[in-house]
Write a structure and sequence with these properties.
Blueprint: H1 13-28, H2 40-66, H3 68-86, H4 93-115, H5 120-143, H6 145-154, E1 162-163, E2 168-169, H7 179-199, H8 203-221, H9 225-240, H10 246-266, E3 270-273, E4 277-280, H11 281-288, H12 290-294, H13 299-306, H14 315-320, H15 339-347, H16 349-367, H17 372-391, H18 399-430
Antiparallel strand pairs: 1-2, 3-4
Helix pairs in contact: 1-2, 1-5, 2-3, 2-4, 3-4, 3-16, 4-18, 5-6, 5-7, 5-8, 7-8, 7-9, 8-9, 8-10, 10-11, 15-16, 16-17, 17-18
Length: 431
């Protein structure tokens, strides 16, 4: 991909692979059963700090002075600490979310920008390769029962990936998560491929990027429907903007989609869990494409029904929150999955409003430098981030704002560089 427009990638394949590996470890934050506290996210963060910490801190301080959002993030952390102390140090989740948000979407963002040498293409390539590797791991868990068993034993999942009631598996690949969170992380890989696709002028590159996007999209079928829908949406963008690759990319897309449905019809092999549990992969396909076959997945109805169990808030709670995400018994305090509802119950309406509004303004401020398709991508990423928060607290799962802000910051930097070059050129012309 040396000839990608605007910022040729001058790094060796080894360096690119190592950086993609760092992003994989940082994004998925693997926690092994043998040493749960030493996560790969923390290890990769230390490595990135050693390599790029000084420059990243300086960039963060500059942005801290220019953006109200990062100032608001610090205030949120202090607010969460006060509530944690007021609640006798019982529920630290709000404090933890605020802290790790600053680390991932603040410091981590600028570490990533520095690692990519302020190149949007490099940043998107690293992320694409990381998600492509995760997709391969997901396929490996489907094909190789031994590998699946190894991941279950050594990478304990946050939640059970087997829906025993409906008899299907949601694979988690090489991660501790799974479900919608993992599927959304993968779908961002499709978006990264799409951005690289738009910047490329070569049909072979476009076809290769389309293949990568399709591979990742197919992997989301076995993980979660949220990421699958996002991936399919951006795959449509590949088709619309195929250019000279049109005559190859369109048939290729239909061939692979046909292969997926052929697998759906012929896959009667079973995956054995704990040596005796039989799971039919056909049921996984039916669940994944339920929106297209039945017109509804039940998610929206479930979110609405959750409001029946939401406890009432007093006037004081509306103003300053309760400081709680969970109850003393460990259950969801708000009784709702939505990130907005959980945050409202924990921090109160004024803090929640200021946080989301300043984040929205930051995204719009950075995206104003973009034009055409790239401006639309900025709007789509921003809209996607806030819409996903309706379903779950995706903003406080860090990857979506990390990716979105990376894109917006790097495109803004490119614009500033072009403006600086234009000013220098005008100065020489006048002389």
């Amino acid at each position: 991909m040396k000839s990608l427009q605007h910022a040729p990638l001058k790094e060796s394949k080894l360096i690119i692979s190592l950086k993609a590996c760092l992003i994989f470890l940082f994004v998925f934050n693997l926690s092994f059963a043998e040493c749960p506290l030493l996560t790969t996210g923390r290890v990769s963060l230390i490595v990135l700090l050693i390599l790029y910490g000084k420059k990243a801190f300086s960039l963060l301080m500059i942005e801290f002075g220019q953006s109200k959002f990062y100032f608001m993030s610090i205030l949120l952390l202090l607010f969460a600490i006060v509530w944690w102390l007021a609640n006798d140090c019982e529920d630290s989740i709000l404090m933890s979310r605020a802290f790790w948000f600053i680390i991932y979407s603040g410091l981590g963002l600028f570490l990533y920008v520095c690692m990519a040498k302020f190149s949007l293409l490099s940043a998107m390539l690293y992320y694409l390769l990381a998600m492509l590797f995760q997709a391969m791991c997901i396929f490996a868990t489907i094909i190789d029962v031994n590998f699946y068993t190894w991941t279950v034993e050594h990478l304990p999942a946050v939640s059970d990936n087997i829906d025993y009631g409906r008899n299907f598996v949601r694979f988690k690949g090489l991660s501790n998560g799974g479900g919608s969170a993992l599927s959304v992380q993968l779908s961002l890989g499709v978006i990264a491929a799409y951005i690289l696709f738009l910047r490329s002028h070569y049909a072979k590159q476009k076809i290769l990027l389309l293949i990568c996007a399709i591979v990742i999209t197919v992997s989301t079928v076995f993980v979660g429907r949220t990421g699958l829908l996002i991936s399919l949406f951006f795959l449509a963008g590949f088709v619309i903007h195929s250019g000279r690759a049109y005559y190859v990319s369109i048939p290729l897309l239909f061939i692979i989609i046909a292969c997926v449905f052929w697998i759906n019809m012929s896959m009667t092999s079973a995956l054995y869990v704990d040596g005796n549990y039989d799971v039919n992969l056909q049921q996984t396909f039916r669940w994944a494409f339920q929106l297209f076959t039945e017109g509804d997945t039940g998610t929206s109805k479930a979110l609405v029904s959750m409001f029946q169990d939401v406890p009432e808030l007093s006037d004081l709670d509306w103003l300053i929150g309760t400081g709680r995400i969970t109850t003393q018994s460990g259950t969801n305090y708000s009784g709702h999955d939505s990130g907005y509802v959980q945050f409202l119950y924990a921090a109160g309406l004024p803090v929640v409003s200021c946080f989301y509004v300043t984040l929205l303004f930051l995204c719009f401020r950075k995206n104003r430098y973009n034009t055409g398709k790239f401006k639309n991508i900025g709007y789509l990423l921003t809209a996607c981030m806030f819409m996903l928060e309706i379903k779950e607290p995706f903003i406080f799962k860090y990857t979506v704002p990390f990716f979105t802000l990376s894109y917006l910051f790097l495109t803004a930097y490119e614009h500033e560089q072009r403006d600086a070059a234009a000013r220098v050129s005008k100065t020489f012309v006048k002389k």
